[in-house]
Each structure stands twice: as C-alpha cells, then as structure tokens.
Design brief:
Two copies of one chain form a homodimer. By secondary structure, chain A is α/β, with parallel strands linked by helices. Chain A has two domains: 5-11 and 258-375, Aspartate Aminotransferase, domain 1; 16-257, Aspartate Aminotransferase, domain 2 (3-Layer(aba) Sandwich), CATH 3.40.640.10. Helices cover 44% and strands 15% of the residues of chain A. Chain A has 14 helices and 14 strands. The first copy, chain A, has helices spanning 16-22, 32-49, 62-73, 87-98, 116-125, 147-157, 176-179, 205-211, 223-230, 241-257, 259-279, 304-315, 341-357, 366-375, and strands spanning 5-6, 56-59, 79-84, 103-107, 129-135, 137-138, 143-144, 160-164, 183-187, 198-203, 293-297, 317-318, 320-321, 330-334. In chain A, the strands form four sheets. Chain A has a seven-stranded mixed β-sheet, with helices on both faces. In chain A, strands 11-14-13 form a three-stranded antiparallel β-sheet, with helices on one face. Chain A has a two-stranded parallel ribbon with strand order 1-12. In chain A, helix 10 (241-257) packs across helix 11 and helix 11 packs antiparallel against helix 14. The longest helix of chain A is centred in the last third of the chain and has 21 residues, at 259-279. The model of chain A has no long low-confidence stretch (mean pLDDT 97).
C-alpha cells in the first residue's frame, strides 16, 4: 500500500471528488449546459483574481497564456521591461527573444523578489518602456515579488503591468483590479486544484486597447480570438470540457471557503513549514520567501536524490527538486490548493525520518512540533 | 432518466472505463512512471498512424498542432498549396494568412474531396510549391480526399505533404509511412476516444529537415522544442498528464482490437448509415462521403433545430448540426471511436421517430432495417 501525496508546486494534489466529477459522462461543448458552466467559471475566476473582467480560459499549459500575453501586449515597436530571477521568469525572456521583441532585462540574484523601488529605478532609466513583466511568486526559487507596489509603479509610468501569477493566484493575496494589474496568467494545476491542461488570462481594459491595436503574430494563443468567442460563453478552439467541468467544481469550493481563507491557509502552511525547517537547523533558500511554496536548502552531508527518493518510496511524499542550477541545492514543498495542516505535518515527519537515514543530526520530532505550534491559532 | 449518446464528430463518446482510468490519483509528470507511460503512448500512436516515427503529444486542441505544422513546414520564402472545400480546411488557410505565408489556394465546392489528379494539375501550374496541405476527412462536409494518391503526387513533385487527419487517423485507413505523408495531425477527442485537450503530430524525416532549417515564429507550438524533449520521453511545457493516462488506455484498446478492425467498424457503420438514409428517402450531403462521419441533408419540410433538439431531449441522441453556411442544411452522425452497431441502430431509430413528429413521410423502421441488413456480415 502506497499513498501518494504530491507536494510538488504543480501539479498539486487533486481531490478524489474532483476526479470523480470529471469522470461524469462527457457532454458536447456547443450546448447551453456548457455555455452556462463556462460562464460560471469565468465569473468565479474573476472572484479568484479579484477582478471584474472575466478571465479567458485557454486549452493549454500556462506557457500558452504567457505566449498570448506577450504577443498581445508587447508590440514590436515598443519596449518591454522583463524582471527575472528564476527559471520561470527566464521563460518570459525566452518568449520575448523568440519573437524578437524589444526588451530590457532587469535581473536579480536567484532567491530575491522584485521590489517597487527597483522597478521604478529601471523605468526611470528606460522611459520608453510600455510594458513590465514580472513573476509574482517564482516557483523555481520560491521567492515573492511586490506585486501591488510594482503595479502602482507601472501605472504611474503609463506601462502595462503583466504578471505571471501561475503560483500566486488563488494562493496568496492577489487583487487584480485594486492593484491595477493589466494582465495576469495562471494554470489549472496549481491553486485551482486540477490536472494540467487549462491556462487562464485576465486582461484589463487598458491592455485590451493595446491588444486590439494590432494583429499579433499568433493564431492558437490569440487573445482577440478568445475574447470574441467568450462574449458568447464560447471558445475559438475545441476546449478541454472535462477540465472545465472540474474547474467549476473547484472554483465553487474556493468560493465556499472564501478566497481570504484560502490565502490564510497557504500563509499558515508556509509559516509552519519555515518554522519546522528552522527547528531542524535547516535554512530557507529565498531571501523573500513566498507563501505558495517553500524552498529548503539541502544541508551539508545530505544527498538530494537519495533524500527525495526515500521520502517518496517510503512515505509517499513527493517533494520537488531544485530546477536547473538549483538542482541538488534545495527541495520545495507546496502550499497551494488541496493541502492542509495534517498533510503538511506528514510531509515534515517524512522529511525528518529520511534526514535521519542520512545521518543528519537533529532532535526527531522537532520539525513537526515547531510546525504544530506555528500553525495553532 | 436521460442517457446521453454523443453522435457528434468530436467530442465523441468516452467510455466509462476511460473516465475512471483518468479518475485515478494524479501523479507528477517528472517521474519514471510518467516517462514510461509517455513512451508507450508515442509508440502506440505510431501504430495508429502506421508510422515508425513517434508522434509528438501537445497539450492543446487540434488547432495547436495545425499552427505548429504550418510554422515549421511552410517557410516564409516558400509557397504552400492549400486545398480547401470546408470549414476545417479554411482554418489552415486562415493560419497561412495570419502569418502572411506565401500560398496558393485550391478550392473545390463543399462536399467534394480532393483527388490526386487535381492536386497534380495545381502543382504543374505552381512548380515552386514546397508544401501541400489538405484535410483527409473534412468534418464539416463529411467528404473524403484521396490521401494516398495526393501524397504520391506531392512526393513526385518534391513537396511536403501535410495532412489534417483530425477526423481520419484511427478511423479510416491511414498509412503514414507507406503513403509517404510528411506531417499528420490529429486530436484526442475523435477516434482516440478521449475528452479534448491533447493534439498529436507525426513528422517525417523529410519534414524535420525543413523544420530544423529555420527558427519558426512560434514558442508554445514549436515542434523543435517538442522533439528535443521527446527524445527523453518528456515535453517542453507541463503536459495534461491526466489525458496522457487516458490515452495509454485507449491506445491499448485500439492495439488490442487491431487498427484494421477499427477501420472496418467505422466503414461498416458509415455504410449502414448511408443505407438507412437512402431507405428513408434522405440524401447524403457529400459527393465523396467519408466513413468517419456521415452528413445527411435535411429534407424539405423538416426544421433542423426542432429535429436535433427532439432527438437529444427525447432520446439522448446528440447529432451535430451543419457548420457555418451548412447550418440548417444537414445533420452529421459520427462513426469514430467508442461507437458500435447497437448505438447506431438507436441513433437511426431516434432519427425516424423525430422525423415522424414533423410529418415527414416514410415507412417507420425502414431506416433501421436497412442499417441492420447493410452491416450484417
């Protein structure tokens, strides 16, 4: 008997309820029933994004929405400021490069989040910037950027503010309209508690003006085509209606729990996990840690592969390795979506048992105790 | 109690077995288990395509693979011949236009399939054509093109042969390698008996040479990125691993039935459906009917909407309407995937009962009897 618990920051755990909801007989997507379901999803997504606009629903990975956002908002005759300090932000740079779009890079060391001040400085130096891209919660380093402050700086400058919210929206406080964010993208397999396969993009009126002012070199991920169809609760290409059905289910759950309570739950899990790490003599990778996922440095004398493999094979706890150059240096534990205190106590216990196997010195139970104290009340 | 039977040519019916397979606990896609599953899928897809190459698996609708195929194979300095006589072929034209790629159009009246001779004539008139695109089975008109003959003509001319096999592969005879096809795309929600959300593209060595000779203006649907990852049984963007699990299940079913038997089943259902239509005094829309889906003209005096809605609400039989300018002129019945003689007898019975409601004159049971005789033995 092996019970698997996915502690990876995407895909996250999917509830059996949702899996069974998606195992219901499949209907066609050109029906009034689907249109109603789709409309409810866009409205509830608006709630999760805290926006009045109805987010687009794309059939694809998060990268599909990233491509669509860049091709729509970053025009060939305008300059984009792209902030990067991790693998996922680097993907945005790659897309800009692939399409030969003018851009200036603002790079920080891995583990750091971007602050409003730094972005303001860059904009002062590059007054011709028309769009700013940053990752709210960088999944690879587990670091948080100051979304609200950066959005304000962008607005003051008159630049569009594009946010990769793939591991932030639905997990940590995110208020699209109040903060003045122009485009925010996410995917189904994170805070939205579904398998991968749907991507989402919310777009402000200001961003639509730019998107609609030109024909972007895109067909499949063309936001204009999605907007046109969505007016009729429809999509331009055959949608993954099985996932849309699951989406309605999980969005209703989020609405019932209340988005503020979801944010509190992730924050508490992150706080407890950081406390556990500290109690075990472990350190956190990020200088500006996000509450969606925690990156813990691998201590001297502990082998990464052996540690993670033992956690999975013996205890069913699947944590993520470091990505790219961070491989071997950290493990990452997810706090998004369908995960609670009891799951996380188990993950920390598994961390402890498997650390002990490698001769790491600590007081067994110290991590779990610290977690329990931190999350209580 | 309402039992729904999807007779739409995509999404087609999904078996409860497959839905439950996809309701199994979700695992991560960066595991050896997923790699094995993925590898098995690409190998079995090769069997369905009748090719030695291992088809790419994209997370997206069929249109994602269409975009990738065009951006890879139709270079800005080369001319493409695009054959069109229906809504889906027109999508290929739209993609060429959107990316301002040089092309010449070969248009036939709706309902007709393309023949080798006609394509050869067009190539003679346009010797500089480097790629030919056609739809094998045009879902909107239910017409079949001569894939084998056209592929030969392309090869003789030295042009790449790109086939939209979205409603042909896995349903009607399709032999990628033997026929010399260069790129063939399909989607998960047709003959592969899954919900929508995955797209597939098989690519010949000849086509890879072209794709690898330039940097296509594509990021998400970049075949080169997929090829690079696939060498390690991986994908460039987070895959819909729930659908990949379902895919392994349905591909194993196809392998067990034998692809030739699957082809025979569709052909028999189509033959029986055409016989039923004839016995009811109805006519077939396509001059060159395909065996994947049958388009039946709506007879004088019968209202399209009323007919289809009555079939669905009273008998759970959901047939497709005509698309675009064919709306109101025809209904379409699917023969792809998880559909058998008994299902189709039921669909024809529902057609008859609901035709009678509108005062259409015929001998009740004549359609069903004709179907039963046609498919027997």
């Amino acid at each position: 008997m092996m019970k698997l618990r996915l502690f990876t920051p995407g895909p996250t755990m999917v509830s059996p309820d949702v899996l069974l909801e998606m195992a219901q007989p499949l209907d066609h997507h050109r029906t009034s029933g689907f249109k109603e379901m789709f409309k409810e999803c866009t409205e509830l997504l608006g709630y999760v994004y805290q926006t009045k606009c109805q987010p687009l629903i794309l059939t694809g990975s998060g990268s599909a929405a990233m491509e669509g956002a860049i091709l729509g908002c970053c025009k060939p005759d305008a300059k984009t400021l792209v902030c990067h300090a991790g693998k996922f932000a680097e993907r945005w740079v790659k897309i800009l490069k692939r399409f030969k779009l003018p851009h200036v890079e603002y790079k920080l060391d891995y583990g750091h989040g971007f602050k409003a001040e730094g972005v303001a400085d860059m904009l002062k130096k590059n007054p011709d910037v028309k769009a700013v891209i940053f990752v709210h919660s960088e999944t690879s380093t587990c670091a948080l950027s100051e979304a609200q402050g950066i959005a304000k700086v962008c607005k003051d400058h008159g630049a569009l503010c594009l946010v990769d919210g793939i591991t932030s929206i639905g997990t940590i406080p995110f208020k699209m309209d109040e903060w003045g964010i122009d485009v925010a993208v996410t995917g189904s397999q994170k805070a939205l508690m579904l398998p991968p396969g749907l991507a989402f993009a919310a777009v402000s009126d200001r961003a639509w003006q730019v998107i609609e002012s030109h024909d972007s070199p895109s067909f499949y991920n063309d936001f204009k085509a999605y907007k046109k169809s969505q007016a009729d609760s429809d999509v331009p290409w055959t949608p993954n209606n099985q996932l849309v059905r699951g989406l309605r289910f999980t969005l209703r759950q989020i609405k019932a729990e209340g988005i503020e309570n979801v944010w509190k739950r992730s924050a508490s899990l992150a706080k407890g996990t950081r406390a556990a790490a500290k109690a075990l003599g472990l350190t956190i990778y990020a200088a500006d840690p996000a509450d969606s996922v925690t990156g813990i440095n691998i201590p001297a004398g502990v082998e990464d592969d052996k540690w993670r493999k033992s956690m999975r094979s013996k205890y069913g706890i699947h944590v993520a390795a470091g990505q790219g150059e961070l491989k071997g240096k950290m493990i990452r534990l997810n706090h998004m979506g369908y995960v609670d205190d009891v799951d996380t106590v188990g993950a920390i216990a598994a961390m402890e048992w498997t650390l002990a196997e490698q001769g790491y010195k600590f007081e067994m139970g110290a991590g779990v105790s610290a977690f329990m104290k931190a999350v209580k009340g």
